[in-house]
Amino acid sequence: MQTAIFILVVLVFVAVSGALVRLVRVPLPVLQIAIGAALAWPVRGIHVEIDPELFLLVFIPPLLFSDAFGAPKRELIALRRPILDLAIGLVFFTIVGFGYALHWLVPSIPLVVAFALAAVLSPTDAVAVSSIVDRNVVPARLMHILEGESLLNDASGLVMFRFAVAAALTGSFSFAAASLSFLYAVAVGILAGVAALFVAAKMLQLLNRIGGVPAEAQVLITILLPFVAYLAAEHFGASGILAAVTAGLLTGSTGIFRFLGVSARMQTISLWTTFSFVFNGALFIVLGLQLPEIVRKVPAELTGHDPIIQPVLTVLALTLCLIALRFVWIWIGDITAGIAARLGKREAEPFGLRVRLAGSVAGVRGAITLAGILSLPLALQDGSPFPARDLVIFLAAGVIICSLVIASLALPVIARGLVEPGEDAGAAEERMARVGAAKAAIAHLESITQTDEEEGDVPGIRLAAANGIVAAYRRRIAAADEADEARAEVREAGRLEIDLRLAGIAAERDALRAMLRRGEINDHTARALFTEITLMEALLNGRQTRK
């Protein structure tokens, strides 16, 4: 009963936060963390113990799957070099640089434990990035790089975190073994995601062939997909996070949703939108619930003469260190890309100083860092307490909050003016896709009706529109006529109209899929238009059923 009440309370405050964010000028994740802390801070407040493995299983697969599914694959493929550079190279650079900096700043933390904290802090959080970063103020190219990096760097960061913890427990570390384990975790994680997607597609195809299967059964398969991918990879000791991301990235391109009925597609769109909002909000509220207990356990190494200022300054210094490391790595990568472009006689696309700074500040940390650091063992193999466990948990939580606050406050200032005013490139692309889909529908309808058309001049645009409106009014008048013959004629005309509209929608969908395959539109545009035509198709099917 207590668990059920806790879940209901969290859901209520997720809804409340969605309303409060309109009244207070605070980013939604920061507001939700504050709500969680307020719920836990009083003497009789809410207290919850997090099981890190359960926390990762419940929150991370659906959220990463949703973000990966919505990510623009065309742009991710085009920007694969800088994305992989940040997702892998920056992780190792952060582990070394931040690990030594932390050990120097807080000598009581053993170097291997400092490397463990650096590893779990190295991944940026896809959920936090999408919640904090405003697409309207950050250049599209930088936004796509941040999205791709945050989807892929979780695997490298958490794998290295496990190696660092194992080294702290055993007192030994093998670079060769760590490298092989890393490659294994990545390869098997990707295979697990592909396998889970293949199984889901086959199940949906089977249900589609059977026919008459409730839409809810089809929707349930899409909900289970990220969890199955995650658990399958974890079962084989690989990266479940990468498996969920792989399944999300490939779901759109495989065309798995073509096996869903109209009702199932509508429910899936609505359900995943709700899931994303609810899970995002619950995640940050649960993070806030942990803060009071973490603050109460601030170790003596940080309190010194001032129990407030010194811990805050330490967390701030470490957060700025992470930002500085990102800035240096992005700067080096920018210079390297420019040199490679000149050697290959290609035009370089360097980032300016402000874009580099925006990319550095936007590397916020979130739930994966929290879940990873809370999974630290309580004791070493000899039974002695794990060194500096409470201290690194406090520092990790502090860096999460500090990175969110700095990004929320600084990004709008840094990014102001980076995006040139004018029509959004995505809007222009969407307009182009609408025109292409409409032309395909018109061509298809004309091919259907051309055998019944009489020869003569094609009526003008005004006359065609007028005829359509007049015909609609005449059908409405005839429908109210008491004559059974008139009503039957209207019903038949309405049925033919619906059939033609459905045929046009099918042609639109085929045209959009072709444009998506050719790379003429990205996933954002395709998803928006697929949603529109799915809603129209559902409306027409409803009218057809009533008739």
UniProtKB/TrEMBL annotation:
<feature type="transmembrane region" description="Helical">
    <location>
        <begin position="391"/>
        <end position="414"/>
    </location>
</feature>
<keyword id="KW-0915">Sodium</keyword>
<feature type="transmembrane region" description="Helical">
    <location>
        <begin position="213"/>
        <end position="232"/>
    </location>
</feature>
<keyword id="KW-0812">Transmembrane</keyword>
<feature type="transmembrane region" description="Helical">
    <location>
        <begin position="83"/>
        <end position="106"/>
    </location>
</feature>
<feature type="transmembrane region" description="Helical">
    <location>
        <begin position="308"/>
        <end position="332"/>
    </location>
</feature>
<feature type="transmembrane region" description="Helical">
    <location>
        <begin position="238"/>
        <end position="257"/>
    </location>
</feature>
<comment type="similarity">
    <text>Belongs to the monovalent cation:proton antiporter 1 (CPA1) transporter (TC 2.A.36) family.</text>
</comment>
<feature type="transmembrane region" description="Helical">
    <location>
        <begin position="155"/>
        <end position="176"/>
    </location>
</feature>
<feature type="transmembrane region" description="Helical">
    <location>
        <begin position="112"/>
        <end position="134"/>
    </location>
</feature>
<feature type="transmembrane region" description="Helical">
    <location>
        <begin position="269"/>
        <end position="288"/>
    </location>
</feature>
<feature type="transmembrane region" description="Helical">
    <location>
        <begin position="182"/>
        <end position="201"/>
    </location>
</feature>
<dbReference type="InterPro" id="IPR018422">
    <property type="entry name" value="Cation/H_exchanger_CPA1"/>
</dbReference>
<dbReference type="Pfam" id="PF00999">
    <property type="entry name" value="Na_H_Exchanger"/>
</dbReference>
<feature type="transmembrane region" description="Helical">
    <location>
        <begin position="353"/>
        <end position="379"/>
    </location>
</feature>
<keyword id="KW-0050">Antiport</keyword>
<keyword id="KW-0472">Membrane</keyword>
<keyword id="KW-1133">Transmembrane helix</keyword>
<protein>
    <submittedName>
        <fullName>Na+/H+ antiporter</fullName>
    </submittedName>
</protein>
<keyword id="KW-0406">Ion transport</keyword>
<keyword id="KW-0739">Sodium transport</keyword>
<keyword id="KW-0813">Transport</keyword>
<keyword id="KW-0997">Cell inner membrane</keyword>
<comment type="function">
    <text>Na(+)/H(+) antiporter that extrudes sodium in exchange for external protons.</text>
</comment>
<dbReference type="InterPro" id="IPR006153">
    <property type="entry name" value="Cation/H_exchanger_TM"/>
</dbReference>
<feature type="domain" description="Cation/H+ exchanger transmembrane">
    <location>
        <begin position="13"/>
        <end position="415"/>
    </location>
</feature>
<keyword id="KW-1003">Cell membrane</keyword>
<dbReference type="InterPro" id="IPR004705">
    <property type="entry name" value="Cation/H_exchanger_CPA1_bac"/>
</dbReference>
